[in-house]
Design a protein that fits this description.
mainly beta; twelve-stranded antiparallel beta barrel; globular
Length: 232
């Protein structure tokens, strides 16, 4: 099963553009749960051409730890851009309250082992029989090619069921630059578009697809965003 899943992820990660750009943001959830492993792939295509792989495990009652890799396409070839360490704490469990809440921290290093960035992400999620609402707010610092900067970013999704298929709309972007260089901390880039998600609690499989249209700013052009996740 793991070999099949890895092959599927590799196929999804084939580049469709010549170089990486700032593109739509990816929603993070309050998972994995205690004792559970999670394998995740997310990718933006059509000009953004950024890909992330992550594996994590729930430890303790409210914590999850993971590691990830960011990949970009340069001259038609995939190149490893950064490694990351991730920690998630669920402050309010979504099963216990109408709205679950948590914090996720991430620190990244580049291929040479140098500090590349850090992020603090607030996560909120609410799911009922008919509605699935998700929102993330990110405080992000990034250092690349001698430039550094800090900005605020966001992503949110409103979808309607019932399960296992959810249909709705997604928005994301970089709301404000708090300091530093424009390239390292872009601002004023906004995306919106329709989304569909398949989520099976029995198999632990989740697949998501959204078409993100650029409505403001000079980020990556409009294009699809793909998400795949397996809990085991």
């Amino acid at each position: 099963m793991m070999r099949v899943w890895a092959a599927a992820i590799a196929a999804l990660a084939v580049p469709l553009a010549a170089h990486a750009q700032s593109g739509p943001e990816q929603i993070e959830q309050l998972e994995p749960e205690a004792g559970e492993w999670q394998l995740q792939y997310s990718g933006a295509y059509g000009g953004a051409d950024s890909h992330e792989l992550e594996i994590g495990r729930g430890v303790g009652g409210h914590w999850a730890l993971g590691v990830g890799a960011e990949v970009e396409a340069v001259d038609g070839h995939l190149e490893l851009d950064a490694f990351s360490a991730v920690a998630l704490v669920r402050l309010v469990e979504p099963e216990d309250r109408p709205v679950g809440m948590g914090l996720m921290g991430q620190v990244s290093v580049d291929r040479a082992g140098r500090y590349a960035g850090a992020e603090l992400r607030g996560i909120a999620e609410s799911r009922s029989a008919r509605w699935w609402l998700q929102a993330n707010v990110m405080l992000r610092h990034r250092r690349e090619d001698g430039e550094a900067g800090t900005n605020l970013a966001y992503v949110a999704s409103v979808q309607r069921g019932p399960a296992p298929f959810w249909y709705g709309i997604e928005v994301s972007g970089r709301a404000a630059r708090l300091g530093g260089d424009d390239d390292a901390a872009p601002a004023g880039q906004h995306y919106v578009g329709p989304s569909v998600t398949y989520r099976s609690d029995l198999s632990g499989l989740e697949l998501g697809l959204a078409w993100m249209a650029r409505v403001a700013g000079n980020g990556a052009p409009s294009g699809p965003r793909v998400f795949a996740q397996l809990d085991f």
